Amino acid sequence: MAALPKRFERFLKDYPDVAVAYERLGEAVHKAGNLSERERALVKLSLATALKSEGAVHAHVRKALKLGLKKNEIRQVALLSIPTIGFPAAMAVMSWMDDILDKKKGK
């Protein structure tokens, strides 16, 4: 299992009550609808992509892999984003995805 980013580890240590509240919010929003775990993972990866947030893309790629999504399914999120966020931004997102995906075996 990959280590948590240092900044997040420090956040957990410095603000444990806020971290617990944040985790509970995440659990609540996941339970609030009918999307499957796989669908939620793709939506959250798409949101991170649209925000062009490197850290969030890394985190959501790791989560998607843990759920069993395939590399080509994850990369399709970047491809689908091209008309919305633009080609250069989508290529940046794909490179962030590859930071994680290239460390994993298989296709």
Structural description of this entry:
- This protein has six helices and no strands.
- Helices cover 78% and strands 0% of the residues.
- The protein starts with 5 loop residues before the first helix and ends in a 6-residue tail after the last helix.
- With 107 residues, it is mainly α.
- The relative contact order is 0.11.
- The chain has helices at residues 6-14, 16-31, 37-51, 54-66, 71-85, 87-101.
- It is globular.
- It folds into two domains: 1-33; 34-107, AhpD-like.
- One of its GO terms (molecular function) is peroxiredoxin activity.
- Keywords: Membrane, Transmembrane, Transmembrane helix.
- It comes from Stygiobacter electus.
- It holds the Pfam family CMD.
- The chain crosses the membrane at residues 77-97.
Give a brief description.
This protein has helices at 6-14, 16-31, 37-51, 54-66, 71-85, 87-101. With 107 residues, it is mainly α.
Contiguous uncertain segments of 5+ residues:
none
What is the CATH topology descriptor of the largest domain? AhpD-like
Q: What is the class of the largest domain in the CATH system?
A: Mainly Alpha
Number of strands: 0
Structural shape: globular
- Give the H and E element order: HHHHHH
Query: What share of the residues lie within helices?
Result: over 70%
Using the 3D structure, state the CATH architecture of the largest domain: Up-down Bundle
Whole-number count of domains: 2
Give the terminus-to-terminus CA distance: 19 Å
Largest sheet: none
What is the helix tally? 6
Rg of Cα set: 15 Å
Binned strand content: under 5%
What is the residue-mean pLDDT, rounded to a whole number?
93
Structural class determined from secondary elements: mainly alpha
CATH homologous superfamily designation of the largest domain: AhpD-like
Domain Carboxymuconolactone decarboxylase-like: 16-98
InterPro entries: AhpD-like, CMD-like
Organism: Stygiobacter electus
Protein name: Carboxymuconolactone decarboxylase family protein
